[in-house]
Amino acid sequence: MSAKGGSAFGGRILAIGAHPDDLEFGCGSLLAKEASAGSQIKLLVLSKGEAGTAGTPESRAEESRAAAKLIGAEIEFLEMGGDCHIKNTAENAFVIAKYIREFKPDVILAPHTDENQHPDHAEAGKMARDAARFARYGGLAELKGLATHKITALYYYPVTQDFAAPVDLVVDTTEVYDTWVKMINCHNTQLQNKDYESLVTARAKALGVAIGTKSAQGLWKNDPIRLNNLSDLNLSSRNY
Prior knowledge:
Layout: E1 2-3, E2 12-17, H1 22-36, E3 40-45, H2 57-70, E4 74-77, H3 90-103, E5 107-111, H4 119-134, E6 153-157, E7 169-172, H5 177-185, H6 188-191, H7 196-211, E8 216-221
Parallel strand pairs: 1-7, 2-3, 2-5, 3-4, 5-6
Antiparallel strand pairs: 6-8, 7-8
């Protein structure tokens, strides 16, 4: 499935990341594209990278704020026990569910729930999934006083997943490539450790080649993608 150029979403997007830089590296190009289309974007970061070797929690938070400013996104940091201590508990999911009820997003973006080299990523993805469900349950005392909210869709973005792995949805992000690179480079402390810019842009370029563009963002679905008609979807990027 691919969405090439043309219209973007233009709604409310809640993007959740475990650490500073996860959102920019994992789905920053998509966030930039949706911001340019008028989407209202809120970023929730569940730690300040307290366990990292490079940078301080304060400097890493400032890097995330600078990246968010480039696309006009609102950003908040939540206390979930700190880097390497994030767990998908009901208590933590209720905290995110409150933000969902308050912000009322149409779409949530979260890290892929498959295990990878950092356990926080999968925990954050599972927590976002559970919080989205809690947000629509009317009988939860923990969320009393906030109107229920049902999102339209939850999609998972890659943090460290193999960039060649099949994805469910591909979005052409060529037009915001330069903005995305600027967002990546806000995280200067992390780029001193590893050439993350080359790593994540290589993934985007590989997906772009697959659909005939310069750059693309891949996502995985949480639920089946619903269409009214086949004509709602650009079914293929291949030339037959």
